Amino acid sequence: MSFPADLPAVRRATLAAFGTAEIESARPLGGGLSGAGIFRIRVGGVPYLLRIEGERDAFRDPARAYACMRIAAAGLIAPRVRYADPQDGVAILEFIEERSLLLDYPGQREDLIVEAVQTVRALHAGPPFPPLVDYLDGIDALIGQFQARGLVAPAATHELFALYGVLRAAYRTAPQDRVASHNDLNPRNMLYDGQRLWFVDWESAFLADRFVDLSCLANLLADTPAREELLLATYFGKVDEVHRARLYLMAQVNHLFYGLVMTNAVASRAQLPSLDGPALAELHQALILGEPVLDTDEGRFGYVRARLAQALEGLRSQRFEAALAVVSARS
Fold first, then answer.
1. What are the Cα distances from residue 233, in Å, to 88, 113, 114, 237?
2. How many CB atoms lie within 10 A of CB 107?
3. Is-contact 216 95, C-beta < 8 A?
4. How far apart are CA 283 and CA 264, in angstroms?
5. Is 90 helix (H, G, I), strand (E, B) or coil?
6. Helix axes 241-262, 210-221, angle to 10 degrees
7. End-to-end distance of the chain based on CA atoms, in angstroms?
8. Which of 291, 286, 282, 289 is nearest to 310 (CA)?
């Protein structure tokens, strides 16, 4: 999207935020898959981030997203909000000069896990976000949309959805586990400025199960049992079998979520015959490095395969049966 300098909503935003409509410079930034226009603007010699929302629907609601963003910014988890008008769908934020999590982060992977989890814990301990849907009800709706789209041959996902149905019947979110949840902590939404982490892009945020955010981090960063244990211990202090079981089950749901959502960004009408493709770990490393692996249909196809295949592998495992038994016994 080119910068719409003559858009009245942009003029209203800059006048309200800075007392001037003059924008000295503007350049587009690579954003996520929401369809929003993301720009680095300069006003009074200072850089800011300007976000212009794209399409709206029951899920993509600036009123809810901006409310969540303001709560997170007040808790110093998200950048300061200079302006946000949900009716116009325009927001202006403090600009974070991003550095690479993989190349510039000063500690080891374990240090990054601890900082990311501490940030999530602070978010979850803060004021609740507006509710939207039960998280697993939302997954059910995404599965319906996915099947209607027909991007993947039904035979390739039959077992996956059958096993998810078993999980769905057993998993219930406890009332105390409903917290202010970002719900989309992918590498593009966690920024490192050379000193600390910031969470950005609150379009998917709402009141949800605490294990949604924890599973996002686990699937991205905790690639060994020891790192999973570190993640849980950092968040809970004392870890028990229910924590481990809920994290494992929600981690498979998280893989499924990203596989389903990514199909919405694929323009091709070709059908994938199977889930064979690139390894998820390789794609995550490329994303953390900032490589444009999701900028083409081919890359998005690969990510769909990798996430759905990872979910299927996890749901086939003996660990799934054990986690299911723990959660079922405590329900």
1. 42, 11, 9, 5
2. 10
3. no
4. 19
5. strand
6. 80
7. 48
8. 282
pTM more than 0.90: yes
Q: Which residues pair with 83 in a beta bridge?
A: 92
Over 90: is that where the pLDDT of 102 sits?
no
Report whether 323 contacts 249 (CB < 8 A).
Answer: yes
HSE-CB of 85 using CA atoms within 13 angstroms: 15
E strand or H helix at 168: helix 154-170
| 175 pLDDT higher than 70 | yes
Which domains does the chain possess? 8-94 (3.30.200.20), 109-330 (3.90.1200.10)
pLDDT of residue 137: 96
Contacts of 33 (CB under 8 A, 6+ apart): 261, 262, 264, 265, 294
Helix (H) or strand (E) holding 121: helix 109-125
Tokens of 72: 């997170």
Q: Is the alpha carbon torsion for 230, 236, 242, 247 positive or negative? A: negative
